[in-house]
DNA sequence: GCGACCAGGTTTGCACATCAAACCGACCCG
DNA sequence: CGGGTCGGTTTGATGTGCAAACCTGGTCGC
């Protein structure tokens, strides 16, 4: 299931980026998601694809299952074996991987080892070059001016450093 | 400036996602980027905003400067002080933060503490709901079928078993 | 039935990273 | 001078990461 993080328990600013990183920010976690999304569902395949040590992989897989990002699905009875599959929450992480891939292609490697292409409709196949747009108005998100406002929940949280004061006597 | 990672030196599949995580995937790194992008450029502000221990923060800031994601910019001479600012490469990480924010809002917290809005043109202000689209053809990227092909560079690197399709399984 | 082999972990022993808290030096303010 | 701020560095305890060996079932060849 979905494992909601208690934002008040996190260090620093209450922010769902930090909450997300709490669930999938440890080493290997996102690479495990990548492998599973590529169709590698078995322990050994994920181990080979990511290069993670086996004990770390065990820990990460369990954590990701607990976080509701992966689910275990048995594929064999007589040697009881299960594969790991993305849940809806896990599939929603693919944009994160896309963002990292695009950044990595541009800034972290001399020449990208993989090219993504697609063929929308019947027009020519071309390379994917992704941008974030607002689904409501179609405007690009990163360029335009975005304003951040606290929600009621956020307002309740951000009185944090004052909570020592029981007498209101300034 | 840009510190390219040697893909052959990474464990597992040669992939720029792994390379990107090598540069900005350690704990606190992305939260540091978040703080700087919010306008907190000083050591103490970043420490408070992220909640990171000060020695870790020192290490991460140095690593991010070495990776070309941040740059140090002096703002005072007589006590020699510098602030940290995003480079072009650092600004290109904002889509990664946007992706994590959106996932975190949806899956990692009960009620998001911050809402993003924007006002494109003169129409009504509305909440940002971002999607990846292909800049070339305008099609949404995550839904449509994307194919992965190895580049020459990738072929040179790889003795690994490629290549399934992205399975959006149920 | 016997030994080899495989998948999916668990255990072990050691190295390295992380943490909170104390410390430090330069500077400023009164 | 005394106290405070800023931007770190040092310290000692604790935790996490790693490679490699080991274990537990089950299958396969013969």
Overall residue-averaged pLDDT value of chain A = 88
Corresponding CATH superfamily of the domain at 7-110 in chain A: Winged helix-like DNA-binding domain superfamily/Winged helix DNA-binding domain
- What is the annotated CATH architecture of the domain at 7-110 in chain A? Orthogonal Bundle
CATH fold name of the domain at 7-110 in chain A, please? Arc Repressor Mutant, subunit A
Backbone shape of chain A: globular
Q: What's the end-to-end separation of chain A, in Å? A: 46 Å
Structural class of chain A: alpha+beta
Largest sheet of chain A: 2 strands, antiparallel
Strand order of the largest sheet of chain A: 1-2
Low-pLDDT stretches of chain A are 160-170
What's the alpha carbon Rg of chain A, rounded to whole Å? 21 Å
What's the oligomerization state? homodimer
CATH class wording of the domain at 7-110 in chain A = Mainly Alpha
What do you see in this structure?
Two copies of one chain form a homodimer. Chain A has a domain at 7-110: Arc Repressor Mutant, subunit A (Orthogonal Bundle). Chain A contains seven helices and six strands. Chain A is α+β, with helices and mostly antiparallel strands and 170 residues long. Helices cover 38% and strands 17% of the residues of chain A. The first copy, chain A, is globular and about 55 Å long. In chain A, the strands form two sheets. The first copy, chain A, has a two-stranded antiparallel sheet with strand order 1-2. The model of chain A is unreliable at 160-170 (pLDDT under 50). The first copy, chain A, has helices at residues 16-24, 29-37, 43-50, 54-66, 88-91, 94-108, 152-157; strands at 70-76, 81-86, 114-118, 126-127, 130-134, 147-150. Strand 3 (114-118) of chain A pairs antiparallel with strand 6 of chain B. The structure holds a DNA duplex (30 and 30 nucleotides).
């Amino acid at each position: 299931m979905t494992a909601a993080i208690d934002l008040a328990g996190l260090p620093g600013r209450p922010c769902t980026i930090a909450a997300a990183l709490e669930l999938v920010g440890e080493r290997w976690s996102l690479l495990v998601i990548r492998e599973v999304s590529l169709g590698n569902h078995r322990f050994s395949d994920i181990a080979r694809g990511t290069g993670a040590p086996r004990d770390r992989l065990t820990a990460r897989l369990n954590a990701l299952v607990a976080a509701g990002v992966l689910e275990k699905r048995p594929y064999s009875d007589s040697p009881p074996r299960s594969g790991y599959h993305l849940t809806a929450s896990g599939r929603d992480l693919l944009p994160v991987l896309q963002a990292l891939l695009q950044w990595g292609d541009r800034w972290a490697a001399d020449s990208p080892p993989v090219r993504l292409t697609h063929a929308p409709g019947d027009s020519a196949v071309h390379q994917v070059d992704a941008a974030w747009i607002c689904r409501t108005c179609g405007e690009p998100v990163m360029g335009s001016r975005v304003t951040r406002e606290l929600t009621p929940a956020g307002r309740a949280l951000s009185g944090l450093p004052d909570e020592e004061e029981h007498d209101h006597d300034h």
